[in-house]
Amino acid sequence: MDTISNMIISIKNAGFSGHESTSTPYSKLKQSIAEVLKKEGFIKNFEEKSEKGKKVLYIELFLENRVPKIKGVKRISKPSKRIYQKASEIRLVKSGYGALVISTPSGVMSGREARKAKLGGEALFTIW
Q1: How many folded domains does the chain comprise?
Q2: Whole-angstrom distance, CA of residue 102 vs CA of residue 14
Q3: Average per-residue pLDDT in the chain?
Q4: Which of 13, 32, 109, 111 is the Cys-Cys partner for 100 at CB 3.0 to 4.6 Å?
Q5: What is the pLDDT of residue 65?
Q6: Domain termination residue (choose one: 42, 68, 94)
Q7: Where in the sequence is the signal peptide annotated (predicted)?
């Protein structure tokens, strides 16, 4: 199972169905991804909660008149095929309206931050 795909698809589907929040099983990687999505303005907030003895990442979404901020997501690197990009290969997503989430040696960050820091890494997904 691809837990990152499950998380981003859960966020996208919750937005399209008009929900203000969604939850997903907790992991440190998912928390790092949520931090990047918050910095980029795709989600309002997130917090770690405990439900029935298990840690859960609770994510609040941006909705304007029940229209979600997130229009789409595309998984790039998968467990079956890892995709790595150099800092010089990182491009804008949807002419700057979207974001690339990349896992670098310095942690998970957006494509803009990675290009500024001249870091490459595993391209996880794009979101717009």
Answers
A1: 2
A2: 23
A3: 95
A4: 111
A5: 84
A6: 68
A7: none
Q: In degrees, to the nearest 5, what angle opens at C-alpha 83 toward C-alphas 60 and 55?
A: 30
Task: Classify burial at 80, counting beta carbons within 10 Å of its beta carbon; exposed 0-12, middle 13-18, buried 19 or more.
Answer: exposed
Cβ neighbours for 41, distance < 8 A, ≥ 6 positions apart: 62, 69
Residue ending a domain, among 68, 92, 119, is 68
- Domain extent, residue 17, equals 3-68
Q: Positive or negative CA dihedral for 76, 87, 127, 57?
A: positive
Helix (H) or strand (E) holding 60: strand 54-61
> Which pLDDT value is given to residue 63?
87
pLDDT confidence tier of residue 85, bands split at 50, 70 and 90: very high
Contact, 57 vs 6, CB < 8 A?
no
Decide: 98 and 40 in contact? Cβ < 8 Å.
no
CA distance 85 to 37: 20
- The pLDDT value recorded for residue 17 is 93
This model's pTM is above 0.85: yes
Q: Contact, 80 vs 27, CB < 8 A?
A: no
